[in-house]
User: Fold this.
Amino acid sequence: MRPDPLAHLAAELDSLKAAGLFRTLRVLDGEQRARASFDHRSVVNLSSNNYLGLTTHPALRARAERAVRELGVGSGSVRTIGGTMALHMELEARLAAFKKTEAAVVFQSGFAANAGTVAALLSKGDAIVSDELNHASIIDGARLSRADISVFPHKDASAARRLLEGLDRSRRALVITDGVFSMDGDLGALPELASLAEEFGAIMMVDDAHASGVFGANGRGTVDHFGLHGRVDVQVGTLSKAVGALGGYAAGSRALIEFLCHRARPFLFSTSHPPAVTAACIAAIDVLEEEPQIIDRLWANARFFKAGLQALGFDTGASESPITPVIVGDGALAMTLSDRLFARGVFAQGIGFPTVPRGRARVRTIVTAEHTREDLQFALDVFKAVGTGLGII
Assistant:
């Protein structure tokens, strides 16, 4: 019998277990709701990106069901061969109008949208100026592009300026930031970076995955929130968080979108969205435009819960969004905190290295518009009991 060529993986897993960082997947039984059943236990769910509760909204269900009945369960092809349906074109037109851009294109995931867009726009000899806490999909896209990558300290526009000043003006450059940072819940330095991009003739790109549906008028995102329409060249987002379904998109000029349709590899080599998903995304845009009170409820809940955690003495970092980390530092302690919360009816996932830097492990909480005050007060009471027991507060 030949030696196992993957034997080293067992050793890696053993090291995770020894450090208290090994995790098993929590299994959702039923619907993704504010109160849900994971591993057959009813919990207050603080680990979902379903900000507005749209995964179970009646309008999205109805549009998805109708699309399955009329169009089937799949598209059967990539977009560039035979997989572009009228629904796809309708969704992209609606997204462009919603984001106030000339055009938009849909990808199979937010990760694919980021990685595919960055990798398509740049090549060897170009330059990328990127926030150090940008999402992994941006980092992977930057590496795939083969451009030179320069990283500035988180939200430090002065450092970004110095990096741009060091570049030859003849080089194509991209300045890129998350709109909302997924682990800390703070906003990117969009106004300052957009001004720098204009000054140095760089492309300005924003990943609005956690901002779409949350910030700006009717959830149009951080570009709308900061009043930067026309000053951000590339907006990327997801359809799987506040929108409640699946996928990602890029929005910008018509030339940008037509170029991505010819050069973005995830678009070229992945089967297009099934009808039900596409129809649900269209219905979600209708809800965002017609039911803004859902976003108001989200923010009321976010303010209540964030203030409660802070009053208890937890370190919530620099959060400015419904994402509120409870930062404890040690990775094993974060996992213990998460497990004890779960045992008492609150699901808030522990996050450690490499998702966040060493020494910055945390439990990440996300509230939704669906949570009741009773849900959130229950969660705060559990956080108090468990945090006190562990000596965190």
